[in-house]
Amino acid sequence: MKALVYEGPGQKSWKDVPDPQIHDPRDAIVKIDTTTICGTDLHILKGDVPAVTPGRILGHEGVGTVTETGSGVNAFKTGDKVILSCVSADGSCSFCKDGLYSHCTGEEGQSGIGWIFGHLIDGTQAEYVRVPYADTSMYRLPENVSQEHGVLLSDIFPTGFEMGVQYGQVQPGDVVAVIGAGPVGLAVIATSGLYGAAKIIAVDLDANRVEQARKFGATHGVNSGDENWREQIMDLTDGWGVDVAVEAVGIPATFEMCTSIVRPGGNVANVGVHGTPVSLELDRLWIENINISMGLVNTNTLSMLLKLIAEGKLPAEEFISHRYSLADILTAYDTFSRAAETNALKVILQA
Ligand SMILES: [Zn+2]
After folding, report:
1. In angstroms, what is the span from residue 154 Cα to ligand 1's centroid?
2. Residue 145 near residue 306 (C-beta atoms within 8 A)
3. Is the pLDDT score of 225 beyond 90?
4. Distance separating alpha carbons of residues 100 and 90, to the nearest angstrom
5. pLDDT at 76 over 90
6. Which one, 52, 199, 216, 341, has the greatest CB density within 10 A?
7. Mean pLDDT, rounded, for 277-302
8. CATH numbers and ranges of domains, the chain
9. Each residue of 202-215: b (16+ CB within 10 Å) or e?
10. 15 CA → ligand 1 middle, Å
11. What is the 13 CA–ligand 1 centroid distance (Å)?
12. How close are the terminal C-alpha atoms of the chain, in Å?
């Protein structure tokens, strides 16, 4: 089969590799019908994620068709259309039993990290993928949900909702500011309304992204390139700051923006993937009673979000900016990596 292979920092290729095989009775083999590219894949290609070794097939998002199941797979059969979660869960370890699938201790060399596709084992940017713990890591794609919308549930919708909205403890009436209006920041914006946010402020350096964010539910936009960006945000609050500030970029400057706009007793939810340490002004912040949260998505809300997408309650279509055939994945990477010029959000790849 063909697959997108990481060849070391800055290097990737679309090439022939052996077809995946069943290793464990709980495995399934899935033919990928739709996949996409994540900002995390770009981090890996920069060499920011050393756990990914050369030769690894990238990708952790996918919708596909089951072509083979191990003898221990009971919930799925050949021909089933499935959504693959970016987090693999054996369903039986102590973390899985607590719903903390992100720290599944299964047997796939996870070492307590549930994100293994395109990280610790071969991923979904391929014609076929081996799915460990298929019964507890795959979700049936309903007939009334398209593959393109289904693939948004592998990662971005659960990540935005769980790490931004739930960990940020958004409450009815809250003012929520989301720093970074890329795909995951937009997923936070799109799901903040579920918990009753009154104002949702999109903050980005890119004027186009700030404007586009309104289609996802942002009520206000602030360009962080403006000298008075902070004043603009404070003017949208009661003067004390936002209730919830969500970091969806992954650099120290945007994290510090969050701690500079949150009200006393408010929440800072870090969603971005950072490549360097971030300093924390504890000497200033301790007296503000601020909660700071962070984490790897669990995808334990995937089924709930799927129901909302099936009923048209979330702006799934708005996330899709480009479509390519899977064989054109190198072009798709080029488009996605130049998002400021191409206005790329989610780049859909179809087999
Ligand atoms: Zn587990």
Report:
1. 18
2. yes
3. yes
4. 11
5. yes
6. 216
7. 96
8. 2-155+298-350 (3.90.180.10), 160-294 (3.40.50.720)
9. bbbbbeebbebbee
10. 32
11. 32
12. 12
Residue whose C-alpha is closest to residue 183's, from 318, 328, 80: 318
Residue 259 has pLDDT above 70, yes or no: yes
Q: Could you give the angle at the alpha carbon of 67 between the alpha carbons of 336 and 128, nearest 5°?
A: 30
Tell me, in angstroms, the distance from the centre of ligand 1 to residue 110's CA: 10
Distance, CA 161 to ligand 1 centroid (Å)?
A: 21
Give the pLDDT confidence of 131-159 residue by residue, as tens digits: 999 999 999 999 999 999 999 999 999 99
AA letter at 73 = V
pLDDT greater than 80 at residue 110 = no
Is pLDDT of 13 > 70?
yes
Q: Three-state SS across the chain?
A: CEEEEEEECCEEEEEECCCCCCCCCCCEEEEEEEEECCHHHHHHHHCCCCCCCCCCECCCCEEEEEEEECCCCCCCCCCCEEEECCCCCCCCCHHHHCCCHHHCCCCCCCCCCCCCECCCECCCCECEEEECCHHHHEEECCCCCCHHHHHHHCCHHHHHHHHHHHCCCCCCCCEEEEECCCHHHHHHHHHHHHHCCCEEEEEECCHHHHHHHHHHCCCEEEECCCCCHHHHHHCCCCCCCEEEEEECCCCHHHHHHHHHHEEEEEEEEECCCCCCCCCCCHHHHHHHCCEEEECCCCCCCHHHHHHHHHCCCCCHHHHEEEEEEHHHHHHHHHHHHCHHHHCCCEEEEEC
